[in-house]
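Design job #97: recover the sequence.
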């Protein structure tokens, strides 16, 4: 039985967090005219957002099979997503709570159920995606941009790709894995 290359299992955070970070603009998207003045509270929120991202990326238990997203609202941070390991959920919360300026953390991260079949599907989808020459580049780096979430045989792809063609190819590859019931392709195409 072949194994997934170890670099695929190295700590990684869903780059889809960047999409959530984009939603962290001031409430209601207020901007007075064409020039936006950054206020003290907004600067603090931006700093907290950067620090939350950095701390979550550094979590050693994080893999391409986990999806942690966050939202910053003033001094409150909401954690969302899905992880395989309850320790990762707790670690994410503890790490974020220690960031200066964070008053509260609402941890809504879902712990995925333990399933040998889901583990097999995770490995097979990763193999199918990253053995494709078009998609191989997405397996590189300390924070691979594609994450594979499996729950009850249903696959969700999270992250960012360079083109609509890559997004479609990832969808086709994930759907080709035996035992996959459905694929929700949440990959976002990176703007040039």
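Job complete. Output follows.
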């Amino acid at each position: 039985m072949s194994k997934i290359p170890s670099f695929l299992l190295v700590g990684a955070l869903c780059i889809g967090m960047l999409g959530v970070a984009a939603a962290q603009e001031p409430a209601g998207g207020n901007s007075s005219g064409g020039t936006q003045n950054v206020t003290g509270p907004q600067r603090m929120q931006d700093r907290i957002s950067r620090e939350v991202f950095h701390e979550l990326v550094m979590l050693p238990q994080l893999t391409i099979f986990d999806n942690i997203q966050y939202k910053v609202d003033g001094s409150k941070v909401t954690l969302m997503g899905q992880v395989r390991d309850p320790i990762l959920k707790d670690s994410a919360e503890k790490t974020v709570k220690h960031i200066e300026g964070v008053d509260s953390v609402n941890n809504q991260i879902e712990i995925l159920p333990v399933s040998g079949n889901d583990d097999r599907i995770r490995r097979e989808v990763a193999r199918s995606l990253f053995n494709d020459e078009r998609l191989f580049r997405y397996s590189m780096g300390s924070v691979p941009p594609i994450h594979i979430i499996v729950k009850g045989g249903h696959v969700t792809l999270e992250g960012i790709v360079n083109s609509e063609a890559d997004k479609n190819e990832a969808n086709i590859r994930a759907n080709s894995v035996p035992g996959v019931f459905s694929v929700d392709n949440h990959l976002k195409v990176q703007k040039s």
